[in-house]
Design brief:
- Helix 2 runs antiparallel to helix 4.
- A hairpin with a 4-residue loop joins strand 5 and strand 6.
- The mean pLDDT is 94.
- The protein starts with 5 loop residues before the first strand and ends with a helix.
- It has a four-stranded antiparallel sheet.
- It is an alpha+beta fold and 157 residues long.
- Helix content is 27%, strand content 33%.
- It has four helices and seven strands.
Length: 157
C-alpha cells in the first residue's frame, strides 16, 4: 500500500466545472476538467478518464526522470484561462522529493494537457501555496501516480 498523500480524482457530478479534486497532504483543491475535455491533440481521448490517465502518465514520466539525478519538474493539475496550477517536485539527491502545490500566470489556452511537456512554456513564476506540500521518496511518488492513473484508465467516464 502506498502511503503518499496525493490523489487527483474526478468527483461524482456531471459537468466540467469544479469536478476534479487534487488532494496533497491536508490540502484540497477543486478544479475543472474543461481543458482536459476540449484537448484536441492526437494524444487526447474522447474520454475524460483516459485524458486524466494520460496526464498522470506524463507526471510519472517526469518524476521518474528525477531518479538518480535530482532536479525540479512541474506537473500541471488546474488549467484555467488566466493561470495554471502546478505541483513542483524537487529532489536534491535523486531519491527524496518535496512536492509543493502552487500557481503560475501561464495561461492554459496554449497548453495541450495530453502533451503538456511539449506544449507548455517553462514555469518561471511559480508561487507556492502555504501548507500545500508533502515530502516522500521519488519511488513512492511514482508508484502513487501510477496507481492513480490506472484508476482513471479503468474508469467509464
Amino acid at each position: 500500500m502506498n502511503s503518499v498523500p496525493l490523489n487527483f480524482e474526478r468527483l461524482a457530478k456531471k459537468g466540467d466545472h469544479k469536478d476534479l479534486r487534487l488532494h496533497l497532504g491536508t490540502y484540497n483543491h477543486f478544479c475543472d476538467s474543461y481543458y482536459l475535455v476540449i484537448d484536441e491533440s492526437p494524444a487526447a481521448s474522447r474520454r475524460l478518464g483516459a485524458n486524466l490517465a494520460r496526464l498522470l502518465e506524463q507526471w510519472r514520466n517526469q518524476v521518474d526522470e528525477l531518479k538518480g539525478m535530482g532536479g525540479t519538474v512541474y506537473l500541471p493539475y488546474d488549467f484555467s484561462d488566466q493561470c495554471t496550477a502546478w505541483l513542483r517536485v524537487t529532489s536534491a539527491d535523486g531519491h527524496d522529493a518535496e512536492v509543493h502545490a502552487g500557481w503560475s500566470l501561464v495561461e492554459a489556452w496554449g497548453i495541450e494537457p495530453s502533451n503538456y511537456v511539449a506544449t507548455s512554456p517553462e514555469i518561471t513564476d511559480f508561487e507556492p501555496i502555504a501548507n500545500a506540500r508533502i515530502a516522500c521518496s521519488l519511488d513512492d511518488l511514482s508508484q502513487c501516480i501510477a496507481m492513480n492513473a490506472e484508476a482513471h484508465a479503468a474508469s467509464r467516464y
